[in-house]
Amino acid sequence: MAQATTTDTAHSKAGHKDHGTKRYIVVWAILLICTALTVWTGRQDLGGANIVIALVIATFKASLVVLFFMHMTEAAGANRVVFVVSLVFLIVMLLGVFGDLWTRNPMTLPTGSPPPALHTTATE
């Protein structure tokens, strides 16, 4: 019994909080709902919004995992700074990739097919 109190004291001295299972079950349920939403929106034809919706849902799910399962809500200031900076770099990288695709000549896009206007002028 003395060992259990020693462990409890060491646990409380380390600054760890005792998390109930209700918190994790709620976050898990939200993650399941977001996964179902991802599957449902992936089967819909929403045009160019599909990729944006998928990225928003994925970012939200990743944030939940980091905040609750990786205990970022109780993390020290330096850990929070690292997390926010990594999100900023992710946004910068995505804007760079999509900015490149939005400003390219249609012939150099991954589809590789010329626009319909070029097909009609080449065959006439």
Characterization of the model:
The chain has 124 residues and is mainly α. The protein has two domains: 17-74; 76-124. The chain has helices at residues 2-13, 21-42, 49-69, 77-102, 116-123. The model has no long low-confidence stretch (mean pLDDT 78). The termini are far apart. It is flat. Helix 2 runs antiparallel to helix 3 (49-69). It has five helices and no strands. The longest helix has 26 residues, at 77-102.
Summed up, what is this model?
This protein has 124 residues and is an all-alpha fold. 72% of the residues lie in helices and 0% in strands.
Helix-strand layout with pairing:
Blueprint (H helix, E strand, L loop, with lengths): L1 H12 L7 H22 L6 H21 L7 H26 L13 H8 L1
**Percentage beta strand:** under 5%
Number of helical segments with 4 or more residues: 5
State the share of residues found in helices, binned by percent: over 70%
Coarse structural class: mainly alpha
Number of domains: 2
SSE series: HHHHH
Q: Mean of the pLDDT scores?
A: 78
Beginning-to-end CA distance, first to last residue: 92 Å
Poorly predicted regions are none
Which sheet architecture does the biggest sheet show? none
Rg (CA only) = 24 Å
Number of distinct beta strands: 0
Judging from the principal axes of the Cα atoms, what is the shape?
A: flat
